[in-house]
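Listing 4. Sequential folding, example run.
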Amino acid sequence: MAFAHGSGSGRHSPRNRYVADVLNEGGFATVLADLLTADEERVDDRTRQLRFDIGLLARRVTDIVDWLGTAEETSELPIGLFGASTGAAAALVSAADRPDAVEAVVSRGGRPDLAGDALPRVTAPTLLVVGGRDGVVLRLNREAFDVLPYDKRLEIVPDATHLFEEPGALERVAALARDWFAAHLVPLHK
């Protein structure tokens, strides 16, 4: 499982690390990698522009997918992508660009709309998870859901906002992700 972070988040994000821990407990290997270099992070902290450069972020996710497919330790494992915020768009673009490699995608509070013309090319089963109180992002996910062509599901976590900080919200996201990947990927162990 590779994580695609977005909107100023990285591999140290407590939310993504929590989800990764739940996936690990479910038998999945996870890779959390920063999509921006340290220098790019500093620029983005000032400009907020690189976090919306979906082309750049998607190339970085695709590089990770390619690496996972060739690394001795992971080359035989199925690949799933977990994207948050703008990282979800990057994950979907990568899934569209590597349909034979990416076998499932989960988006947490994502911006799948930013994947643009890649959305109709996504063949990987895709789960979109959105907070019920995240109005604009919920609308954008509903619109993107209509464009996704294949196995897809939109799951709304009631009373949750964009960061899923409400009691039980992140736990629900992690359980949904674990169950989605369990249904579409083969875990390492049980």
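-- end of first protein; second protein begins --
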Amino acid sequence: MWGDILVPPPRLLAMRDDQVHRGPDAAGLHSGPHIGLALNRLAIIDLSPAANQPMEVDAGVAHILFNGEIYNYSE
């Protein structure tokens, strides 16, 4: 049913929802052939929806999740 998807979207959602304590501000999901990304986001600096994840570039050519801090980001 899910083809080449290693982890079906319902399972990704269940894993993401198990980590709701990691961030109450946004939740994201991307699944496709050979990939599954899920994230709960805690917004601290950039509160806009543009910072929600997974982030997509080039009309879906690449997706990224980021968990961490970028020091000296304002410079």
